[in-house]
Amino acid sequence: MAGKSWMWTEALEMLQSAERLQRQFFQVGDAQRQGGCWEPPVDIYEKGDEFWIYVALPGVADHQIEVAVEGNTLVVRGERRLAPAARGAAIHRLEIPYGRFERRVSLPPERYQVLQRVLDGGCLVLGLRRLG
Questions:
Q1: Mind listing the domains of the chain with CATH numbers?
Q2: Residues near 126 by Cβ (< 8 Å), separated by ≥ 6?
């Protein structure tokens, strides 16, 4: 009986993990128009006239990321490709999303200048300054 209990517990944990990942990464919102994108999670900090935005993009190279300010919306889009090691392999677990992504972040209605754009530790770090 102990073996069945362990399997049931593991199955429930896997379902909960899948639901959490779906909520966190596979929200389709406005990105749906682009053909089924996933939305990377973001952290946003405001300090004076600056906004600092951290976009979690593990395994994405800088040249695969497009950043634009459209009115008062910051748009980050690109593609995370499946790791070369995964091609032709039996996949046991796939928790980090891949494929096209797009994240739109609404900002207060102002004009903005990009101060900094750097990829650091799997996060795209963007610094924006409010121009008034």
A1: 2-84+95-130 (2.60.40.790)
A2: 51, 52, 53, 54, 55, 67, 74, 76, 114, 116, 117
Length of the chain: 132
CA distance 130 to 113: 7
Mind listing the pLDDT tens digit for each residue in 21-33?
A: 655 554 444 444 4
**pTM for the whole structure:** 0.72
pLDDT tens-digit series, residues 68-100 = 999 889 999 999 998 888 888 888 888 888 899
Task: Give the position of tokens 């008034």.
Answer: 132
- Residue 43 is encoded by which pair of tokens? 């952290």
